[in-house]
Amino acid sequence: MTDGAKLLTEMNDRSREVFRRVVEGYLSSGDPVGSRSLSRSMTEKVSAATIRNVMQDLEFLGLLDSPHVSAGRIPTQRGLRMFVDGLLEVGTVAQEDREKIDATLGDSDRDVASLLDQVGSALSGITRGASLVLSPKHEAPIKHIEFVSLSPERALVVLVFADGHVENRLFTPPAGQTPSSMREAANFLNALAEGRTLSDLRRTMTQDIARHRQEIDVLARELVESGIAIWENGGERGERLIVRGRSNLLEAATEGFEVDRIRSLFDDLERKRDIVDFLELTEAGDGVRIFIGSENKLFSLSGSSLVVSPYMNADRKIIGAVGVIGPTRLNYGRIVPIVDYTAQLVGRMVSERGKG
Protein backbone atom coordinates (compact mmCIF):
# COMPACT_ATOMS: atom_id res chain seq x y z
CA MET A 1 0.00 0.00 0.00
CA THR A 2 1.37 3.42 -0.93
CA ASP A 3 1.66 6.22 1.63
CA GLY A 4 -1.19 8.04 -0.12
CA ALA A 5 -3.48 5.01 -0.04
CA LYS A 6 -2.70 4.46 3.63
CA LEU A 7 -3.45 8.09 4.39
CA LEU A 8 -6.78 7.86 2.56
CA THR A 9 -7.86 4.84 4.61
CA GLU A 10 -6.94 6.66 7.83
CA MET A 11 -9.06 9.73 6.98
CA ASN A 12 -12.58 10.00 8.29
CA ASP A 13 -15.44 10.46 5.84
CA ARG A 14 -15.60 14.23 6.32
CA SER A 15 -11.89 14.78 5.64
CA ARG A 16 -12.00 12.50 2.62
CA GLU A 17 -15.00 14.36 1.18
CA VAL A 18 -13.47 17.80 1.77
CA PHE A 19 -10.26 16.67 0.12
CA ARG A 20 -12.08 15.15 -2.86
CA ARG A 21 -14.28 18.21 -3.39
CA VAL A 22 -11.31 20.60 -3.21
CA VAL A 23 -9.40 18.60 -5.81
CA GLU A 24 -12.40 18.17 -8.11
CA GLY A 25 -13.26 21.86 -7.83
CA TYR A 26 -9.69 22.86 -8.62
CA LEU A 27 -9.42 20.48 -11.59
CA SER A 28 -12.70 21.86 -12.95
CA SER A 29 -12.01 25.58 -12.58
CA GLY A 30 -8.31 26.00 -11.89
CA ASP A 31 -9.23 28.23 -8.94
CA PRO A 32 -8.70 27.74 -5.20
CA VAL A 33 -11.73 26.24 -3.44
CA GLY A 34 -13.02 28.05 -0.37
CA SER A 35 -14.70 26.72 2.76
CA ARG A 36 -17.87 28.76 2.22
CA SER A 37 -18.59 27.22 -1.20
CA LEU A 38 -17.83 23.74 0.16
CA SER A 39 -20.23 24.16 3.09
CA ARG A 40 -23.08 24.50 0.59
CA SER A 41 -22.26 21.25 -1.25
CA MET A 42 -21.16 18.83 1.47
CA THR A 43 -23.16 15.65 2.05
CA GLU A 44 -23.56 16.49 5.72
CA LYS A 45 -24.40 20.01 6.88
CA VAL A 46 -21.28 21.50 8.43
CA SER A 47 -20.19 25.07 9.00
CA ALA A 48 -17.57 26.90 6.97
CA ALA A 49 -15.48 27.15 10.17
CA THR A 50 -15.50 23.36 10.56
CA ILE A 51 -14.44 22.91 6.94
CA ARG A 52 -11.62 25.44 7.42
CA ASN A 53 -10.32 23.33 10.30
CA VAL A 54 -10.39 20.20 8.12
CA MET A 55 -8.59 22.10 5.35
CA GLN A 56 -5.89 23.19 7.80
CA ASP A 57 -5.39 19.56 8.83
CA LEU A 58 -5.10 18.52 5.16
CA GLU A 59 -2.65 21.34 4.58
CA PHE A 60 -0.57 20.13 7.54
CA LEU A 61 -0.48 16.67 5.92
CA GLY A 62 0.93 18.23 2.74
CA LEU A 63 -2.14 17.49 0.64
CA LEU A 64 -3.50 21.02 0.22
CA ASP A 65 -1.91 24.43 -0.15
CA SER A 66 -3.19 28.00 0.16
CA PRO A 67 -1.77 30.16 -2.64
CA HIS A 68 -2.88 33.38 -0.93
CA VAL A 69 -3.37 34.28 2.71
CA SER A 70 -7.17 34.53 2.71
CA ALA A 71 -8.02 32.41 -0.32
CA GLY A 72 -9.23 28.84 -0.54
CA ARG A 73 -7.07 25.77 -1.06
CA ILE A 74 -5.63 23.93 -4.03
CA PRO A 75 -4.13 20.43 -4.03
CA THR A 76 -0.38 19.99 -3.81
CA GLN A 77 1.46 17.62 -6.13
CA ARG A 78 1.30 15.02 -3.37
CA GLY A 79 -2.42 15.64 -3.00
CA LEU A 80 -3.02 15.26 -6.73
CA ARG A 81 -1.10 11.99 -6.74
CA MET A 82 -3.17 10.66 -3.85
CA PHE A 83 -6.39 11.72 -5.58
CA VAL A 84 -5.37 10.08 -8.88
CA ASP A 85 -4.33 6.86 -7.16
CA GLY A 86 -7.24 6.52 -4.75
CA LEU A 87 -10.23 8.70 -5.62
CA LEU A 88 -10.17 9.31 -9.36
CA GLU A 89 -13.32 8.16 -11.13
CA VAL A 90 -12.44 7.32 -14.72
CA GLY A 91 -15.29 7.70 -17.16
CA THR A 92 -15.80 6.21 -20.59
CA VAL A 93 -14.89 7.86 -23.89
CA ALA A 94 -17.78 10.05 -25.07
CA GLN A 95 -19.30 8.99 -28.37
CA GLU A 96 -18.37 12.32 -30.00
CA ASP A 97 -14.73 11.97 -28.93
CA ARG A 98 -14.62 8.34 -30.05
CA GLU A 99 -15.91 9.29 -33.50
CA LYS A 100 -13.28 12.03 -33.89
CA ILE A 101 -10.47 9.62 -33.04
CA ASP A 102 -11.90 6.86 -35.27
CA ALA A 103 -12.17 9.30 -38.17
CA THR A 104 -8.41 9.96 -38.17
CA LEU A 105 -7.67 6.30 -38.92
CA GLY A 106 -10.28 5.85 -41.61
CA ASP A 107 -8.09 6.87 -44.56
CA SER A 108 -6.45 3.64 -45.73
CA ASP A 109 -4.43 5.45 -48.42
CA ARG A 110 -2.30 7.42 -45.96
CA ASP A 111 0.99 6.11 -44.61
CA VAL A 112 1.48 5.42 -40.91
CA ALA A 113 3.37 8.67 -40.25
CA SER A 114 0.57 10.78 -41.77
CA LEU A 115 -2.10 8.90 -39.83
CA LEU A 116 -0.22 9.34 -36.55
CA ASP A 117 0.10 13.04 -37.31
CA GLN A 118 -3.69 13.18 -37.71
CA VAL A 119 -4.16 11.23 -34.49
CA GLY A 120 -2.01 13.78 -32.66
CA SER A 121 -4.04 16.69 -34.03
CA ALA A 122 -7.33 15.03 -33.07
CA LEU A 123 -6.06 14.17 -29.60
CA SER A 124 -4.93 17.73 -28.87
CA GLY A 125 -8.23 19.10 -30.19
CA ILE A 126 -10.33 16.76 -28.05
CA THR A 127 -8.36 17.19 -24.82
CA ARG A 128 -7.36 20.87 -25.26
CA GLY A 129 -3.85 19.90 -24.23
CA ALA A 130 -0.74 19.14 -26.25
CA SER A 131 -0.57 15.64 -27.70
CA LEU A 132 2.56 13.53 -27.97
CA VAL A 133 2.71 10.57 -30.36
CA LEU A 134 5.83 8.45 -30.66
CA SER A 135 5.76 6.72 -34.03
CA PRO A 136 7.26 3.22 -34.34
CA LYS A 137 10.67 2.40 -35.69
CA HIS A 138 10.69 0.98 -39.19
CA GLU A 139 11.22 -2.74 -38.73
CA ALA A 140 10.73 -4.16 -42.22
CA PRO A 141 13.56 -6.35 -43.57
CA ILE A 142 16.35 -4.53 -45.41
CA LYS A 143 16.52 -5.03 -49.16
CA HIS A 144 19.53 -2.89 -50.09
CA ILE A 145 22.14 -0.55 -48.56
CA GLU A 146 24.23 1.95 -50.49
CA PHE A 147 26.83 4.61 -49.60
CA VAL A 148 26.92 7.78 -51.70
CA SER A 149 29.77 10.30 -51.46
CA LEU A 150 28.58 13.92 -51.54
CA SER A 151 31.89 15.58 -50.63
CA PRO A 152 35.04 14.60 -48.69
CA GLU A 153 33.19 15.52 -45.47
CA ARG A 154 29.67 14.40 -46.35
CA ALA A 155 28.22 11.03 -47.31
CA LEU A 156 24.79 9.52 -47.54
CA VAL A 157 23.71 6.03 -46.55
CA VAL A 158 20.61 4.92 -48.42
CA LEU A 159 18.47 2.19 -46.84
CA VAL A 160 15.88 0.46 -49.01
CA PHE A 161 13.44 -1.80 -47.16
CA ALA A 162 11.57 -4.81 -48.51
CA ASP A 163 8.24 -2.99 -48.23
CA GLY A 164 9.47 -0.15 -50.46
CA HIS A 165 10.24 2.31 -47.66
CA VAL A 166 13.46 4.32 -48.25
CA GLU A 167 15.52 6.27 -45.70
CA ASN A 168 18.48 8.55 -46.42
CA ARG A 169 20.88 9.43 -43.62
CA LEU A 170 23.69 11.98 -43.80
CA PHE A 171 26.94 11.41 -41.93
CA THR A 172 30.62 12.36 -41.92
CA PRO A 173 32.64 9.50 -43.42
CA PRO A 174 36.14 8.55 -42.18
CA ALA A 175 38.92 10.38 -44.02
CA GLY A 176 40.32 8.91 -47.21
CA GLN A 177 37.24 7.10 -48.46
CA THR A 178 37.26 6.14 -52.13
CA PRO A 179 34.51 4.96 -54.49
CA SER A 180 35.90 1.44 -54.29
CA SER A 181 35.94 1.38 -50.47
CA MET A 182 32.35 2.61 -50.45
CA ARG A 183 31.30 -0.14 -52.85
CA GLU A 184 33.13 -2.73 -50.74
CA ALA A 185 31.44 -1.48 -47.55
CA ALA A 186 28.01 -1.59 -49.23
CA ASN A 187 28.63 -5.09 -50.61
CA PHE A 188 29.74 -6.31 -47.19
CA LEU A 189 26.61 -4.92 -45.52
CA ASN A 190 24.26 -6.16 -48.23
CA ALA A 191 25.61 -9.68 -47.86
CA LEU A 192 24.82 -9.57 -44.13
CA ALA A 193 21.59 -7.56 -44.26
CA GLU A 194 19.40 -9.58 -46.60
CA GLY A 195 16.18 -10.54 -44.85
CA ARG A 196 17.18 -8.88 -41.57
CA THR A 197 15.75 -5.77 -39.94
CA LEU A 198 17.90 -2.82 -39.00
CA SER A 199 17.71 -3.80 -35.34
CA ASP A 200 18.84 -7.34 -36.16
CA LEU A 201 21.74 -6.03 -38.23
CA ARG A 202 22.84 -3.57 -35.58
CA ARG A 203 22.86 -6.25 -32.87
CA THR A 204 25.27 -8.53 -34.74
CA MET A 205 27.33 -6.03 -36.73
CA THR A 206 30.30 -5.78 -34.36
CA GLN A 207 30.72 -9.58 -34.26
CA ASP A 208 30.32 -9.79 -38.04
CA ILE A 209 33.06 -7.23 -38.63
CA ALA A 210 35.41 -9.07 -36.27
CA ARG A 211 34.67 -12.39 -37.94
CA HIS A 212 35.35 -11.04 -41.44
CA ARG A 213 38.17 -8.68 -40.49
CA GLN A 214 40.63 -10.25 -42.96
CA GLU A 215 38.16 -10.11 -45.84
CA ILE A 216 37.33 -6.41 -45.77
CA ASP A 217 39.54 -3.42 -46.53
CA VAL A 218 40.50 -1.12 -43.64
CA LEU A 219 38.78 1.89 -45.23
CA ALA A 220 35.62 -0.10 -45.92
CA ARG A 221 35.64 -1.43 -42.34
CA GLU A 222 35.89 2.12 -40.98
CA LEU A 223 32.98 3.16 -43.18
CA VAL A 224 30.81 0.28 -41.95
CA GLU A 225 31.68 1.10 -38.34
CA SER A 226 30.84 4.77 -38.83
CA GLY A 227 27.54 3.66 -40.35
CA ILE A 228 26.84 1.66 -37.18
CA ALA A 229 27.51 4.79 -35.14
CA ILE A 230 24.93 6.68 -37.20
CA TRP A 231 22.34 3.97 -36.55
CA GLU A 232 23.07 3.79 -32.83
CA ASN A 233 23.50 7.45 -31.91
CA GLY A 234 20.25 9.19 -32.66
CA GLY A 235 20.12 7.90 -36.18
CA GLU A 236 16.72 6.25 -35.93
CA ARG A 237 14.85 8.94 -37.81
CA GLY A 238 11.94 6.58 -38.29
CA GLU A 239 11.19 6.87 -34.58
CA ARG A 240 10.00 10.37 -33.88
CA LEU A 241 7.98 12.39 -31.44
CA ILE A 242 5.00 14.16 -33.03
CA VAL A 243 3.83 17.12 -30.94
CA ARG A 244 0.54 18.88 -31.66
CA GLY A 245 -1.52 21.49 -29.81
CA ARG A 246 1.20 23.64 -28.22
CA SER A 247 -1.10 26.68 -28.53
CA ASN A 248 -3.66 24.97 -26.27
CA LEU A 249 -1.21 25.15 -23.37
CA LEU A 250 -0.57 28.85 -23.90
CA GLU A 251 -4.31 29.54 -24.04
CA ALA A 252 -4.78 27.72 -20.73
CA ALA A 253 -2.08 29.75 -18.97
CA THR A 254 -3.55 32.44 -16.71
CA GLU A 255 -0.43 33.79 -15.03
CA GLY A 256 2.85 35.12 -16.40
CA PHE A 257 4.86 32.45 -14.57
CA GLU A 258 2.70 29.75 -16.18
CA VAL A 259 3.52 31.11 -19.64
CA ASP A 260 7.24 30.99 -18.76
CA ARG A 261 6.91 27.37 -17.60
CA ILE A 262 5.11 26.38 -20.77
CA ARG A 263 7.82 28.02 -22.88
CA SER A 264 10.30 25.93 -20.92
CA LEU A 265 8.24 22.86 -21.83
CA PHE A 266 8.35 23.84 -25.52
CA ASP A 267 12.14 24.17 -25.29
CA ASP A 268 12.31 20.68 -23.75
CA LEU A 269 10.23 19.26 -26.59
CA GLU A 270 12.33 20.98 -29.27
CA ARG A 271 15.60 19.82 -27.72
CA LYS A 272 14.53 16.21 -27.26
CA ARG A 273 16.96 14.15 -29.29
CA ASP A 274 16.79 10.93 -27.32
CA ILE A 275 13.05 10.37 -27.51
CA VAL A 276 13.54 6.81 -26.32
CA ASP A 277 13.18 8.40 -22.86
CA PHE A 278 9.54 9.03 -23.67
CA LEU A 279 8.95 5.39 -24.47
CA GLU A 280 10.73 4.29 -21.29
CA LEU A 281 8.07 6.09 -19.27
CA THR A 282 5.59 3.43 -20.38
CA GLU A 283 7.65 0.31 -19.75
CA ALA A 284 6.41 -0.39 -16.23
CA GLY A 285 3.14 -1.67 -17.65
CA ASP A 286 0.93 -1.78 -20.68
CA GLY A 287 -1.74 0.60 -19.38
CA VAL A 288 -2.13 4.34 -18.95
CA ARG A 289 0.33 6.04 -16.61
CA ILE A 290 0.01 9.49 -15.08
CA PHE A 291 3.04 11.64 -14.23
CA ILE A 292 2.34 14.76 -12.17
CA GLY A 293 4.72 17.71 -11.99
CA SER A 294 8.23 16.70 -10.97
CA GLU A 295 7.37 12.97 -11.29
CA ASN A 296 7.65 13.60 -15.02
CA LYS A 297 11.40 13.45 -15.58
CA LEU A 298 11.19 14.60 -19.19
CA PHE A 299 9.36 17.85 -18.55
CA SER A 300 9.77 18.52 -14.83
CA LEU A 301 10.66 22.19 -15.32
CA SER A 302 7.27 22.95 -16.81
CA GLY A 303 5.13 21.91 -13.83
CA SER A 304 3.01 19.87 -16.23
CA SER A 305 1.25 16.54 -16.04
CA LEU A 306 1.61 13.78 -18.61
CA VAL A 307 -0.96 11.06 -19.28
CA VAL A 308 0.70 8.41 -21.47
CA SER A 309 0.03 4.91 -22.74
CA PRO A 310 2.15 2.61 -24.91
CA TYR A 311 0.75 0.92 -27.98
CA MET A 312 1.73 -2.53 -29.14
CA ASN A 313 2.07 -4.51 -32.34
CA ALA A 314 0.43 -7.86 -33.05
CA ASP A 315 3.16 -9.63 -31.03
CA ARG A 316 2.33 -7.54 -27.91
CA LYS A 317 5.63 -5.72 -28.20
CA ILE A 318 5.64 -2.04 -27.17
CA ILE A 319 6.54 -0.07 -30.31
CA GLY A 320 5.35 3.47 -29.57
CA ALA A 321 3.35 5.66 -27.22
CA VAL A 322 0.51 8.17 -27.14
CA GLY A 323 0.14 10.89 -24.54
CA VAL A 324 -1.37 14.21 -23.53
CA ILE A 325 0.54 16.86 -21.65
CA GLY A 326 -1.01 19.85 -19.95
CA PRO A 327 -1.25 21.74 -16.66
CA THR A 328 -1.43 19.68 -13.46
CA ARG A 329 -5.18 20.49 -13.31
CA LEU A 330 -5.94 18.22 -16.25
CA ASN A 331 -9.36 16.55 -16.30
CA TYR A 332 -7.76 13.16 -15.56
CA GLY A 333 -11.05 11.25 -15.38
CA ARG A 334 -11.87 12.23 -18.97
CA ILE A 335 -8.37 12.19 -20.49
CA VAL A 336 -7.23 8.79 -19.16
CA PRO A 337 -9.84 6.76 -21.12
CA ILE A 338 -9.27 8.90 -24.25
CA VAL A 339 -5.52 8.18 -24.19
CA ASP A 340 -6.16 4.50 -23.47
CA TYR A 341 -8.65 4.19 -26.35
CA THR A 342 -6.35 6.05 -28.77
CA ALA A 343 -3.35 3.87 -27.89
CA GLN A 344 -5.33 0.66 -28.47
CA LEU A 345 -6.66 1.96 -31.78
CA VAL A 346 -3.20 3.04 -32.98
CA GLY A 347 -1.76 -0.35 -31.99
CA ARG A 348 -4.36 -2.15 -34.07
CA MET A 349 -3.82 0.17 -37.03
CA VAL A 350 -0.04 -0.27 -37.00
CA SER A 351 -0.38 -4.05 -36.64
CA GLU A 352 -2.81 -4.28 -39.56
CA ARG A 353 -0.42 -2.36 -41.78
CA GLY A 354 2.48 -4.61 -40.79
CA LYS A 355 4.65 -1.71 -39.65
CA GLY A 356 5.33 -2.99 -36.15
From TrEMBL:
A molecular-function term among this protein's GO annotations: DNA binding
Source domain of life: Bacteria
Keyword Ribosomal protein: no
InterPro entries, per the entry: GAF-like_dom_sf, HrcA, HrcA_C, WH-like_DNA-bd_sf, WH_DNA-bd_sf, WHTH_transcript_rep_HrcA_IDD
Keyword Repressor: yes
Any GO BP: negative regulation of DNA-templated transcription
Record-linked Gene3D superfamilies: 3.30.450.40, Heat-inducible transcription repressor hrca homolog, domain 3 (3.30.390.60), Winged helix-like DNA-binding domain superfamily/Winged helix DNA-binding domain (1.10.10.10)
Keyword entries, A-Z: Repressor, Stress response, Transcription, Transcription regulation
Domain Heat-inducible transcription repressor HrcA C-terminal residue range list: 114-336
A Pfam family the protein falls into: HrcA
HAMAP family per record: HrcA
PANTHER family reported for this sequence: HEAT-INDUCIBLE TRANSCRIPTION REPRESSOR HRCA
Family per record: Belongs to the HrcA family.
NCBIfam families recorded: hrcA
Function field: Negative regulator of class I heat shock genes (grpE-dnaK-dnaJ and groELS operons). Prevents heat-shock induction of these operons.
Name of the protein in its database record: Heat-inducible transcription repressor HrcA
